[in-house]
Automatic annotation (TrEMBL):
The chain crosses the membrane at residues 28-47, 59-77, 83-102. This is DUF2512 family protein. Keywords: Membrane, Transmembrane, Transmembrane helix.
Length: 116
C-alpha cells in the first residue's frame, strides 16, 4: 500500500512541475495537472499489481511510459484551455518513467508482491 501512496505523491508533483517548468505543457489551473497525475498514479498502481516481478521491470516501466504519455496527451483534450505539445507529452512521460523505474527496482529488491 505504501507504493500507492508514493505514486499518489510523485506523479501529480511531476505533472505539476512540468506545467510550471516546461513551456510545452500548459494547464489552465493547477488542479488539472494534479488530477492528471492522480489518474496516472492509480492506473500505474494497478498495472504494477498485475505485472511487476523480478523479470518484468522493463516491461512494467515501458507500460508506465505509454500510460503516462496517453493520459497526458488526452488530458489536453479533456481540460478546456490546456495545451500540451508532443514534446511536452514526451518530456513529462519520460520524467514519470524515470521515477517509476527506480521505484520498480526498489520494490522488486525488497520482495514486493502485494497481491491479495
Amino acid at each position: 500500500m505504501n507504493e500507492l501512496l508514493i505514486k499518489l505523491f510523485t506523479c501529480p508533483i511531476i505533472v505539476l512541475g512540468a506545467d510550471y517548468f516546461i513551456n510545452q505543457v500548459h494547464y489552465v489551473s493547477p488542479y488539472q495537472a494534479v488530477i492528471t497525475g492522480l489518474i496516472i498514479a492509480i492506473v500505474a498502481y494497478f498495472i504494477e499489481l498485475n505485472l511487476l516481478g523480478p523479470g518484468t521491470i522493463l516491461l512494467d516501466t515501458f507500460l508506465d511510459f505509454l500510460l503516462a504519455a496517453i493520459v497526458i496527451y488526452l488530458s489536453s483534450f479533456v481540460f478546456p484551455g490546456s495545451f500540451i505539445s508532443y514534446t511536452g507529452v514526451l518530456l513529462t512521460a519520460l520524467a514519470i518513467t524515470a521515477v517509476e523505474y527506480f521505484q520498480h527496482v526498489w520494490l522488486v529488491s525488497v520482495g514486493y508482491r502485494d497481491i491479495p
